[in-house]
Amino acid sequence: MTLNIFFISITLKRREESLQQAARNEMIEKLYEQNKEHQMSIYHLL
Q: Could you tell me if residue 37 is inside a domain?
């Protein structure tokens, strides 16, 4: 009789954003919101 037992340990570590990456993400979010507002204003004109 053979008994095979495997133990796997996975550690997830949250990656820290650099200051530049955080600023870039914020700018992207702002541009996305502006684009969305622009699309809605055009939609309402039709």
A: yes
